[in-house]
């Protein structure tokens, strides 16, 4: 394969003022697809995200025996039947939700399923998934490295019951067994035993989506979830815009002294990206609701921030880019687990901000960013869509910035580069 041509990041010498309607949430789409595939009847999904991560999820569920019929922006999912699907291979790409969630579904079947993914996927932590499967009595063939590839060999019957896991490197290790728990004969009594648990809003989203489908879940104490056995109700649902991905537009407005209207920001949501409503004021900006939209505007200064991003780690690359352009130093904490994301995001952000003349440093659990005048150059993306997002935020203020591989954004937002190009010509 030839290397991609670097993409010139959009640049502004005046404030960026615009509006954006971002595509559907990755986290919601992939949960809703799984729950539809496990449902007690067909479900429709309106305005799902169609991107690499969600198409990989759709393909994985189809390989396990679900059917997905598409009509414009509505997908109708018929659940995985009792007939089973035979042996299958699942390509996880670089999608955490596919590599962590789907092996638990494979455990409910009766034929071996092999999981593999991109080169970068093979270094993402998977030991907790493998340990969970084994403690449920499911055989897993792996090479003892705690990573992809591996083969799940189901027994045809999983009792469930008490399971203890360490999910300190990813909340997805909790969400995955919760998603299938109701379908186990004895349900599931899941405890997280590790020192920290990142991305709690994502776990809460899992619990909320299960409850919407009449699954009974109790949370008797912190880091313990009891899922009662029973059917998962079919549900017709519309997917909300991806609020984490809205962050690039919000940050773009803030760093250029402008303002952006994000259309259709849900009045109530379980998405982690809703945290932009508190992050923006920390940088000195303002947030106003206008009907169904939120309008984010820059303040008179872009202030340095002290933020704990433990719950919303996926926002870190864009926040770090804003910090590199702020008027004072910033400390971003609580995100040690980003070292196991699409790439080691802490190392990647430090390397790329500093390559442009910046001053960023890793701490045990985050970053220190001291603003410096930045110069152009090629911002490397490490196969990580959110590194490309960070590059766009920087490029709006720093002339001559090239994004190494903007195609990485197809993971969650295939129209990302054209959307920016349209915004730059219409403003
Ligand atoms: O369950 C999910 O949909 C996600 C959970 C989070 O993972 P981590 O807990 O590994 O950070 C988040 O960062 C990721 O983008 C999506
Ligand atoms: C961590 C992320 O993705 P994944 O779902 O692959 O873990 C992300 O999108 O920032």
UniProtKB/TrEMBL annotation:
<protein>
    <recommendedName>
        <fullName>3-phosphoshikimate 1-carboxyvinyltransferase</fullName>
        <ecNumber>2.5.1.19</ecNumber>
    </recommendedName>
</protein>
<keyword id="KW-0028">Amino-acid biosynthesis</keyword>
<feature type="binding site">
    <location>
        <position position="171"/>
    </location>
    <ligand>
        <name>3-phosphoshikimate</name>
    </ligand>
</feature>
<keyword id="KW-0808">Transferase</keyword>
<comment type="similarity">
    <text>Belongs to the EPSP synthase family.</text>
</comment>
<comment type="function">
    <text>Catalyzes the transfer of the enolpyruvyl moiety of phosphoenolpyruvate (PEP) to the 5-hydroxyl of shikimate-3-phosphate (S3P) to produce enolpyruvyl shikimate-3-phosphate and inorganic phosphate.</text>
</comment>
<feature type="binding site">
    <location>
        <position position="199"/>
    </location>
    <ligand>
        <name>3-phosphoshikimate</name>
    </ligand>
</feature>
<feature type="binding site">
    <location>
        <position position="341"/>
    </location>
    <ligand>
        <name>3-phosphoshikimate</name>
    </ligand>
</feature>
<keyword id="KW-0057">Aromatic amino acid biosynthesis</keyword>
<feature type="active site" description="Proton acceptor">
    <location>
        <position position="314"/>
    </location>
</feature>
<feature type="binding site">
    <location>
        <position position="411"/>
    </location>
    <ligand>
        <name>phosphoenolpyruvate</name>
    </ligand>
</feature>
<dbReference type="GO" id="GO:0009073">
    <property type="term" value="P:aromatic amino acid family biosynthetic process"/>
</dbReference>
<dbReference type="InterPro" id="IPR013792">
    <property type="entry name" value="RNA3'P_cycl/enolpyr_Trfase_a/b"/>
</dbReference>
<feature type="binding site">
    <location>
        <position position="345"/>
    </location>
    <ligand>
        <name>phosphoenolpyruvate</name>
    </ligand>
</feature>
<dbReference type="GO" id="GO:0009423">
    <property type="term" value="P:chorismate biosynthetic process"/>
</dbReference>
<dbReference type="GO" id="GO:0008652">
    <property type="term" value="P:amino acid biosynthetic process"/>
</dbReference>
<feature type="binding site">
    <location>
        <position position="386"/>
    </location>
    <ligand>
        <name>phosphoenolpyruvate</name>
    </ligand>
</feature>
<keyword id="KW-0963">Cytoplasm</keyword>
<feature type="binding site">
    <location>
        <position position="27"/>
    </location>
    <ligand>
        <name>3-phosphoshikimate</name>
    </ligand>
</feature>
<comment type="subunit">
    <text>Monomer.</text>
</comment>
<feature type="binding site">
    <location>
        <position position="124"/>
    </location>
    <ligand>
        <name>phosphoenolpyruvate</name>
    </ligand>
</feature>
<feature type="binding site">
    <location>
        <position position="172"/>
    </location>
    <ligand>
        <name>phosphoenolpyruvate</name>
    </ligand>
</feature>
<feature type="binding site">
    <location>
        <position position="96"/>
    </location>
    <ligand>
        <name>phosphoenolpyruvate</name>
    </ligand>
</feature>
<feature type="binding site">
    <location>
        <position position="26"/>
    </location>
    <ligand>
        <name>phosphoenolpyruvate</name>
    </ligand>
</feature>
<comment type="pathway">
    <text>Metabolic intermediate biosynthesis; chorismate biosynthesis; chorismate from D-erythrose 4-phosphate and phosphoenolpyruvate: step 6/7.</text>
</comment>
<dbReference type="InterPro" id="IPR036968">
    <property type="entry name" value="Enolpyruvate_Tfrase_sf"/>
</dbReference>
<dbReference type="InterPro" id="IPR006264">
    <property type="entry name" value="EPSP_synthase"/>
</dbReference>
<dbReference type="GO" id="GO:0003866">
    <property type="term" value="F:3-phosphoshikimate 1-carboxyvinyltransferase activity"/>
</dbReference>
<feature type="domain" description="Enolpyruvate transferase">
    <location>
        <begin position="13"/>
        <end position="418"/>
    </location>
</feature>
<dbReference type="Pfam" id="PF00275">
    <property type="entry name" value="EPSP_synthase"/>
</dbReference>
<feature type="binding site">
    <location>
        <position position="314"/>
    </location>
    <ligand>
        <name>3-phosphoshikimate</name>
    </ligand>
</feature>
<feature type="binding site">
    <location>
        <position position="26"/>
    </location>
    <ligand>
        <name>3-phosphoshikimate</name>
    </ligand>
</feature>
<dbReference type="GO" id="GO:0005737">
    <property type="term" value="C:cytoplasm"/>
</dbReference>
<dbReference type="InterPro" id="IPR001986">
    <property type="entry name" value="Enolpyruvate_Tfrase_dom"/>
</dbReference>
<feature type="binding site">
    <location>
        <position position="170"/>
    </location>
    <ligand>
        <name>3-phosphoshikimate</name>
    </ligand>
</feature>
<feature type="binding site">
    <location>
        <position position="31"/>
    </location>
    <ligand>
        <name>3-phosphoshikimate</name>
    </ligand>
</feature>
<feature type="binding site">
    <location>
        <position position="172"/>
    </location>
    <ligand>
        <name>3-phosphoshikimate</name>
    </ligand>
</feature>
<dbReference type="InterPro" id="IPR023193">
    <property type="entry name" value="EPSP_synthase_CS"/>
</dbReference>
